[in-house]
């Protein structure tokens, strides 16, 4: 990294700088937090049905003890400490404790299958793994044979582990006791170690999302992480009294940014849900002020509301439809910068009282000041849905390699088709080939153990994103898609498959869609239905089914999806219309490597895996037999055989497989022209 | 018609034990005798407490037996379907609740403090069985496998020394069975509760138990470690007997 990048805003953080340690490191920030507001609540975890609180002083105390405990176990600067488990205080305590020693934490997605786990442990060279519970410990013990580098496994939920007889296993509190003993002997050890930390050293190894390849380990420094949070804080200030619920995987950079760096510089409270099944209820109890989340969460909220409303009584449905329409009018007025008419204002007040506020409350969004979606594009319909409700949902854009984000919508300046404006301190430019380049103090140090990939990603301090995009007239960045995914349609226009997919996914019955068309004469789609919602629909309409595969192949479900696709087609330029589709016989699953751990579609992998299906979509027949391998939760695999149906859409004005392509569609070449379509809905 | 017969079974404090046998062998009848639902006309049932004192329990009413530390679950779920999971578990604490009509009626003070203690105990069980997401759900709305878990939770709320599980895995899919087997093992190993599992599904039972007794027509036909039972001729005959493949039990 060049020197000018290093002198980011983090370097000149002023204020009440403590003497003992540099506040420019994450543990240093914790120390100053614990000094300034020792009794304020730092973390809250719901346990035994009650929110248990931990103050900043208590937080530091536990970090201090665990850190010294790791020291006692022989952890030295530069060692890697892997962390796997659900969001719990122990996760962040471990991370800060490792950093305080100069060791490097590595986050692993808690739902990783054995091979992914083995890969990350091996690539990082971790010596110590801090695992949550028996499930994670079992997984690590399974792969340990191939990884002699792992010396200790530390667990913090002892349930079921009492009978394990392994010298490598240690209970979290035992390590804390080791640390306490060491602290009595050498009371200055913790502070003196902290002082030796260099803010530009690696503070975290974060796995990249891996939409296009196997995940890589990005090395992020303290300066990277802190500058990112400070840039965001400048744009969207949070205050110390705020609450945020930490429920997305901490191995994901977005959650890292909120739960660690942002919380540490501002001092707001982080709340950990009781377990993964109680997240929605806990969200509602806390009423967080901000949420950063990938599109999947927002999409599923919309589907849930839509399906519940369909189940509802006609009167309620009428009130809901009316209120949402009013909400959308209000949102549109705000987007266009118009002053709403007094009639609309009064209608909106009524709609809020009747529907919008209670709905927000149900979803746990009652107190949301800002909600962010990032990681992939979110469909305009989903955006409008939340804004109609009065939730200030904003798009952000970034990569793991810039510590999370580089571009974000500003309040009151939200455009569906853009991802917003660059953060202060972040420069964004478009390369000649259309690639988005970023430069900021948050740009990472490189990939761990992969200099070639680092050299490819970094060019004179600019980070290459492999995303294609352009800046619009308002200074907003428009991201078209992954550069390699951009399709050139039969009529020569370029188009973003993600854009069509998002339109398809707006239906509550469609969980995932993968659109093809770059090479073929027309656009075709693989569609995975939403099992739960489509299943409810089937029950309501007296369609009997047994399994996912059975349901997906029901003619009624095909008809349901066909209707939705026909609607979507009407809003698309002719060349981009979907001509043929099939409903997949299985859900796309991260365990089958079809999705990333943040539930993004791995397009190229799917194209490879379902090559047979894609071929059939472009073939003549309307039926095909497939055989697939399914990976079970415990890692076993099995082969299943099914017959799938291919549906050809009867859009008379669309491009038919047999037709010759029509003349070029409206919309300038080289842009996805999303604005045209968002108005058409 | 004979209900049980010349049976003589001993369950020891500590290990995870299983009582197996073909349908109609008398497993559930024995259990009903143990917890006082049936009163045997002949023979005796003795409970030796930790101090070594012997209690005849075959003439005691069920609630007295419960207080001696014997808890059970039922083959057909016997929960209060219109109450929440939490309330069902709190009900399991009933044997440990005390107080006069007056102090309970006043509630504030002593009884309130007690209720908090009981709730803490129940929350420990909720945490253990991972029932948090359904804490406030009515039992009637739960899936069958979850109801079975709640029933186990209610039995645990009694803080038993002996836990009798009547076909805890019946009607469960293999994933649910595996989860339940883990809980049963943990109850026995970590909480130190003597556990007796009654089942005719041998697969899981043989995997988890330390000691197995086999019943057939009210008689104990074999006893020993799972390995010994697998090899036992009498057991193989009782299960397979003349009616090959009737129960689908793999030995």
Strand order of the largest sheet of chain A: 4-3-5-6-7
Q: What's the β-strand tally of chain A?
A: 29
Mean pLDDT of chain A: 85
Overall mean confidence score, pLDDT of chain B? 81
Looking across the biggest beta sheet of chain B, what order are the strands in? 4-5-6-1-7-8
What Rg of chain B, in angstroms, do the CA atoms define?
19 Å
Total of DSSP H or I helical runs spanning 4+ residues of chain A: 23
Number of strands of chain B: 8
Query: How much of the polypeptide of chain A forms β-strand, as a percent range?
Result: 15-25%
Question: In terms of structural class, how would the helical and strand content of chain A be classed?
Answer: alpha/beta
**Structural class per helix/strand content of chain B?**
alpha/beta
**Main sheet of chain A, how many strands, which sense, barrel?**
5 strands, parallel
**Gap between N and C termini of chain A:** 46 Å
Low-confidence stretches of chain B: 242-251
How many helices of chain B in DSSP terms? 10
- Overall radius of gyration of chain A: 26 Å
In the CATH scheme, the class of chain B would be Alpha Beta
């Amino acid at each position: 990294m060049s020197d000018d990048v290093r002198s980011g805003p983090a370097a000149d953080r002023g204020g009440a700088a403590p003497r003992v340690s540099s506040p420019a490191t994450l543990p240093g920030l914790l120390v100053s937090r614990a000094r300034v507001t020792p009794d304020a609540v730092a973390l809250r975890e719901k346990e035994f049905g009650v929110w248990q609180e931990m103050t900043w002083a208590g937080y530091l105390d536990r970090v201090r003890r665990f850190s010294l405990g790791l020291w006692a176990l022989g952890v030295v600067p530069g060692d890697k400490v892997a962390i796997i488990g659900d969001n719990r205080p122990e996760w962040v305590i471990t991370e800060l404790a490792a950093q305080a020693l100069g060791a490097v934490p590595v986050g692993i997605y808690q739902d990783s299958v054995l091979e992914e786990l083995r890969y990350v442990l091996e690539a990082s060279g971790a010596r110590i793994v801090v695992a949550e519970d028996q499930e994670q410990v079992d997984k690590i013990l399974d792969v340990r044979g191939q990884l002699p580098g792992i010396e200790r496994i530390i667990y913090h939920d002892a349930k079921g582990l009492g009978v394990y007889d392994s010298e490598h296993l240690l209970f979290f509190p035992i390590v804390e006791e080791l640390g306490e003993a060491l602290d009595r002997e050498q009371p200055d050890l913790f502070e003196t170690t902290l002082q030796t930390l260099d803010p530009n050293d690696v503070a975290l190894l974060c796995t990249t999302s891996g939409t296009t390849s196997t995940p890589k380990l990005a090395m992020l420094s303290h300066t990277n992480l802190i500058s990112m949070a400070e840039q965001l804080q400048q744009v969207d200030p949070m205050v110390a009294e705020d609450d945020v619920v930490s429920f997305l995987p901490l191995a994901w950079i977005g959650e890292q940014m909120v739960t660690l760096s942002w919380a540490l510089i501002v001092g707001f409270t982080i709340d950990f849900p009781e377990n993964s099944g109680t997240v929605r209820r806990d969200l509602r109890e806390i009423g967080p002020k901000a949420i950063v989340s990938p599109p999947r969460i927002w999409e599923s909220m919309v589907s849930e509301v839509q399906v519940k409303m369909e189940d509802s009584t006609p009167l309620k449905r009428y009130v809901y439809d009316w209120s949402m329409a009013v909400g959308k009018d209000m949102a549109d007025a705000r987007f266009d910068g118009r002053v709403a008419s007094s009639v609309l204002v009064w209608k909106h007040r009524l709609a809020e009282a009747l529907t919008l506020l209670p709905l927000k409350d149900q979803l746990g969004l009652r107190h949301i000041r800002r909600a962010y979606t990032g990681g992939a594009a979110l469909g305009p319909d989903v955006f409008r849905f939340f804004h109609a409700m009065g939730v200030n949902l904003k798009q952000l854009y970034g990569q793991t390699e810039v510590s999370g984000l580089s571009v974000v919508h500003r309040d009151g300046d939200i455009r569906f088709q853009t991802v917003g404006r660059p953060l202060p301190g972040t420069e964004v430019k478009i390369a000649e080939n259309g690639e988005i380049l970023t430069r900021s103090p948050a740009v990472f140090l490189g990939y761990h153990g992969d200099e070639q990939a680092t050299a490819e990603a970094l060019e004179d301090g600019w980070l290459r994103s492999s995303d294609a995009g352009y800046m619009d007239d308002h200074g907003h960045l428009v991201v078209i898609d992954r550069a390699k995914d951009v399709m050139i349609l039969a009529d020569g226009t370029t188009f973003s498959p993600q854009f069509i997919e998002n339109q398809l996914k707006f239906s509550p019955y469609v969980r995932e869609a993968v659109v093809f068309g770059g090479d073929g004469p027309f656009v075709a789609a693989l569609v995975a239905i939403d099992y739960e919602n489509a299943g409810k629909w089937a029950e309501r309409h007296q369609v009997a089914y047994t399994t996912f595969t059975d349901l997906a192949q029901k003619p009624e479900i095909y008809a349901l999806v066909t209707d939705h696709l026909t609607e979507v087609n009407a809003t698309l330029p002719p060349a981009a219309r979907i001509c043929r589709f099939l409903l997949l016989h299985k859900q796309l699953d991260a365990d089958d490597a079809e999705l990333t751990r943040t539930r993004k579609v791995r397009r190229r992998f799917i194209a490879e895996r379902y090559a047979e299906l894609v071929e059939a979509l472009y073939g003549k027949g309307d039926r095909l037999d497939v055989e697939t391998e399914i990976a079970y939760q415990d890692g076993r695999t099995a082969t299943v055989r099914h017959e799938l149906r291919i549906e050809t859409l009867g859009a008379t004005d669309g491009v038919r497989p047999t037709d010759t392509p029509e003349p070029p569609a409206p919309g300038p070449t080289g842009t996805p022209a999303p604005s045209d379509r968002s108005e058409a809905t | 018609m004979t209900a049980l017969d010349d049976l003589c079974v001993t369950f020891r404090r500590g290990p995870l034990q299983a009582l197996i046998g073909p349908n109609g062998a008398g497993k559930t009848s024995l259990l009903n005798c143990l917890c006082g639902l049936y009163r045997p006309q002949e023979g005796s049932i003795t409970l030796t407490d930790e101090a070594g004192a012997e209690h005849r329990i075959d003439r005691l009413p069920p609630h007295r037996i419960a207080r001696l530390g014997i808890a059970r679950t039922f083959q057909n779920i016997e929960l209060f379907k219109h109450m929440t999971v939490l309330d069902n578990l709190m009900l399991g604490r009933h044997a440990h609740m005390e107080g006069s009509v007056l102090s309970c009626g006043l509630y504030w003070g002593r009884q309130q403090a007690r209720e908090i203690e009981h709730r803490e105990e129940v929350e420990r069980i909720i945490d253990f069985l991972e029932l948090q997401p359904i804490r406030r759900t009515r039992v009637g709305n739960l899936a069958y496998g979850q109801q079975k878990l709640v029933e186990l939770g209610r039995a645990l709320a009694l803080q038993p020394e002996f836990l009798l599980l009547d076909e805890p895995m019946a009607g469960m899919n293999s994933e649910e069975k595996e989860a339940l087997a883990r809980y049963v093992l943990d109850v026995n190993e970590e909480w130190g509760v003597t556990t007796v599992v009654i089942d005719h599904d041998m697969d899981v039972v043989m995997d988890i138990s330390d000691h197995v007794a086999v019943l057939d027509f009210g008689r104990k036909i074999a006893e020993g470690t799972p390995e010994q039972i697998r090899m036992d001729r009498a057991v193989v005959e009782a299960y397979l007997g003349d009616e090959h493949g009737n129960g689908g039990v793999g030995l």
